[in-house]
Design goal:
The complex is a heterodimer.
Chain A lengths: L6 E10 L2 E11 L4 E5 L6 H8 L7 E9 L5 H4 L4 E4 L3 H4 L6 H10 L6 H14 L5 H4 L9 H13 L5 E5 L7 H18 L2 E6 L2 H7 L2 E6 L2 E7 H6 L4 H8 L39 H5 L5 E3 L2 E3 L8
Helix pairs in contact in A: 4-5, 5-7, 7-8
Chain B lengths: L5 E10 L2 E11 L4 E5 L6 H8 L7 E6 L2 E2 L5 H4 L6 E4 L13 H11 L7 H12 L16 H13 L5 E5 L7 H18 L2 E5 L3 H7 L2 E6 L2 E2 L2
Parallel strand pairs in B: 3-8, 3-9, 6-7, 7-8
Antiparallel strand pairs in B: 1-2, 1-4, 4-5, 9-10
Helix pairs in contact in B: 3-4, 3-5, 4-5, 5-6
The chains are: A alpha/beta, B alpha/beta.
Amino acid sequence: MRSDVLLSVRDLRIAFDGIEAVRGLSFDVRPGEVLAIVGESGAGKSLTARALLGMLPPGATTGGEVRLLGETDLAAQRGRRIALVPQDALSALSPVHPVGDQLAAAVRSVSRVPRKEARARAVAALERVGIPDAARKARAYPHEYSGGMRQRAVIAMAAINNPDVLVADEPTTALDEERRDQVLKVLAEQREAAGAALVLVTHDLDVVREHTDRALVMYAGRLTELGPAEEVLTRPLAPYTAGLLASLPQNATPGRRLPTLPGTPPTPGVLPPGCAFAPRCSLASDTCRHEEPEPQQVDGRLVSCHHWEDA
Amino acid sequence: MNTPLLDVRDLVVRYGAVTAVDQVSFSLHSGETLALNGPSGCGKSSTAHAVLQLRRPDSGEVRFEGRELTTLTERELRPLRPRMQPVFQDPYGSLSPRHRIRDAVAEPLKVQGRWSREGGPDRVAELLDRVGLDPAYGDRLPHELSGGQCQRAGIARALASDPRLLVLDEPVSALDPSVRAGVLNLLADLQDDLGLGYLFICHDRAVVRHFADRVLEMRGGRIIT
C-alpha cells in the first residue's frame, strides 16, 4: 500500500440493465486533498461518488475496484473512514428526532461509547460548525433550524467520526452565493480539523477554482481530464473542458452571445462510436469517430483526447 | 419619453407580519432586460409574483403598458394576462408531466381562442422551432427531454401567448453551464427579434452581469442599488 494514495479507483464501471453510465474510470484520492469531480448532468459524477461510499442504487452492476486504504468493502467503512455530506440537509435529517440525538447516534454507530459521552460529542460537533447555543440547539428538531444551520449540522454529522474522506455531492447547488460560500467555509474547516480528504462533486466551476486542489472532468462516464484545478481551469487540455469554460458568462464579452457547445450530451446506451464527445467537437477527426481515446499523461496531468495538442 | 412597458411604484407585499417586498419601485421598457439580484429570501420572487398579479400586492402600483393592474378585477385582468408571461426555474415542474410537449404549447392557444385545426399544429411546430427544438419533440413527455430542452419548451409555451413581457424567475439556475449558455442566447435572440421586455430574477451575479441591461440589488425586501 502506498502512503500517498488514500482512495484508489481502478477501471470503475457502473451499469444499469446492461447500459454503462460509468465506463472505466480510474483515479486516486490523496490524503488531505480536495478533489473536484466536475461534469454536466448524466456524466456519471454522482454515481461515481456513490460508488466511493458503497451506496449505489439497487439494480446497479459494477466492475473494477474501489479501495480505501486497501479495504474494498466501502459500505462497511461508511460513517467511519468515509462519510457523505448530503446535498439536501432537510431530507437527510429525520424530522422526528432531535438533531443532537441524530449526531449522537452517528457516534454510537461506530464506537461503543456511553450515551452521555456521545451526546457531549454531538454538542461539541455542533459547536464546531458555529451553531450558537449548541447545547440547547442539540435538543431542537430539524424544523427548528434555519436552512443554513441544517446544512452545517449535516456537515458536523459527516465529520463527527473523523473520517479519512468526506464525499460531498453538490452540497451547494440549491444555495445562493452567500450561503454557498458559508457552507464551503464550514466544510473546509471541518475537513481540515479532521485531516480528511474531500471529494467534491459539483458542476459549479467557480467552486472548483476557489475551493479545490485537483479537478477530474468527466464526460459520458469517462475521464476527460484530471489535473491541478488551477491548470485545468486556465489551460484546459481537452476540447470539452475548453468549451465548458468558454460557455461561462464570467469569461464572455458582455453584450455578445455566449459560446456554446453544439448538440447535447449523449444519453447512456446510445453513445456514438469512438470518442463520445466527437459529434460536438470542432477538432474531431476520423480517428476520433472510430477510436475511443484512453487517458494519457501530459505534464503530470491526464487527458483523454486524440488532439489535446491542438486544443 | 414613451410609456414604459412596466412601471412599478412603491410595491409592498406582506406575508402576515413579514414584509417581503418593501416599497419597491422600478420601470422597464420594451426590448430591455432588468435584473433583480439578491440572496434567497430577499423578495425577488415575491416581486415577480406581485408584478404578474399572481399574488395581489398589499399596496403600490403596477402599471403594464400604461394600465394600472392592482385595481382590476380578475375578469378585467384576464385579457391582459397573456401579454405578461412567466418562465420558472424548474423546467420539469412548470410543465405537466402527463401532457405531451405539443399539448403544453398548444394549451394557451386553445384557452385564448386562437386554435384552429389547420393553423394550430403549424403554430406549435413554428414555436418549437423558434426555441431551437425539433418539432418532433412535440410528441414527447417532459421527462423524456433534458433540462435545457424542457426549459426551451417552457419558453415556447410562454411565447404561444404573444407576450410583451417575460417574467423570468431563475430560468437558467437549474441548468448545466453549456446548456445554460444556449438558453441565455435563445432569450437574447428572442428579445432582439420580438422586442420583449424581460424582468430577470437571478441570484447568479456572473449571469446577471452578462445578460442584463440594468441590475437592481435587493436585500430584505428593499432595492439597495
